[in-house]
Design goal:
This protein is α/β, with parallel strands linked by helices. It contains 14 helices and 13 strands. The chain has two domains: 126 residues, Aspartate Aminotransferase, domain 1 (Alpha-Beta Complex), CATH 3.90.1150; 234 residues, Type I PLP-dependent aspartate aminotransferase-like (Major domain) (Aspartate Aminotransferase, domain 2, 3-Layer(aba) Sandwich), CATH 3.40.640.10. A seven-stranded mixed β-sheet has the order 2-10-9-8-7-3-4, sandwiched between helices. The chain has a two-stranded parallel sheet with strand order 1-12. A two-stranded antiparallel sheet has the order 5-6. α8 links the parallel β7 and β8. α2 crosses α11, α5 crosses α6 and α12 packs across α14. The protein is globular and about 65 Å long. 48% of the residues are buried. The structure holds (2S)-2-hydroxybutanedioic acid (LMR). The site of (2S)-2-hydroxybutanedioic acid (LMR) has 6 residues, from loops.
Length: 395
Amino acid sequence: MFSELKPQPADPILGLSVKFKADNNPNKIDLGPGVYKDESGHTPVLDCVKKAEQQRVDNETSKVYLGSAGSALFNEKITELLLGDHQVIGSNRIRTISTPGGTGGLRIAGEFINRCKPGTTIWVSNPTWANHQGVFAAAGLNVKTYPYYDYENKCLDFAGMLDALKEVSTGDAVLLHACCHNPSGMDLNQEQWREVAALANERGFLPVIDIAYQGFGQGLEEDAYGVRLMADNVDEMIICSSCSKNFGLYRDRIGACSIIGKTDIAADIINSALLPVVRVNYSMPAAHGAAIVETILSSGELMTLWHDELKTMRDRIGDMRQLLVNKLIANGVTRDFSFITRQNGMFSFLGIEAEQIQRLQEEFSIYIVGSSRINVAGVSTANVDYLAQSIAKVL
Ligand code: LMR
């Protein structure tokens, strides 16, 4: 059975962590996977999470199964976080299930779409998160790309994106990043969202919005603008969300898949068809991450603490963007990297060559994803000089 297997390359993002761990250089810098790091390079457990976990330990009375949709309270609270008081909630047109991380939500969304219409084409941005194409292809979808990032001018190729979306067929799905585009950090502005939402309505494509960094861009409400606007404009859509980054619950694997239907009855039918997708896959999601999130979102005190901690993370990344640009200039780099300060969230494309990325890794122990994506959260006041000097050398 296994003798014909060929060795496969390591994951382009997760594989970097393995190499980084094995590197003995004391100056090594990990700018690979999108995880928040504080000034000392540590990915902390948030205080609000610690407190919610303590409450859970004290109050949990049973570990009986929750069912394929996961925790009803988590599902309700996360829907509110995504949509505020949007009318799709009041009119009972949305159904949310807890999923194993945002990736689990995407995979379930992909399989659900494939059940509705086998082999549906889903359009993803070029570039997109390195795992999107694989997840959707594994779910049976036909993956195509639309232009998104202008590599030369380091900005959005919005005209190219619109032109491509105008050609999308009715019934195709289109994946959009709600905020903090992974990997480019370049987001749609509000006017651009309005144009895309109008097009979704006109062309009749299914928007699938991936929101994995809510709160890391401009703020929790601001980052949900596109999600809410799209829900104003279309009858049906899917939202896949993640609590990995904004609650720092990476390894607890908690996210959600929310589906909006045309009516409350349609939403019930959707739900009845969605749960079997989960059942044959992992049966039901784990409970722990959801319990933490629902505890935080149900408590005024923990919610305030969470907002403060999220703001601290967001502000630190913003500061590091500016600091890195300043240090590159201070180290004699004449190429314009000011675009780094105009991007949102954890990521930025440096736009440097593959050979320079390789040199950064091999000569300087600086780990960057092969697309030249850096995780800005990996930059600190302690390592920024070494980083800027090293980039200056390879340039
Ligand atoms: C990333 O893009 O680095 C993160 O979303 C982590 C992952 O799973 O790839």
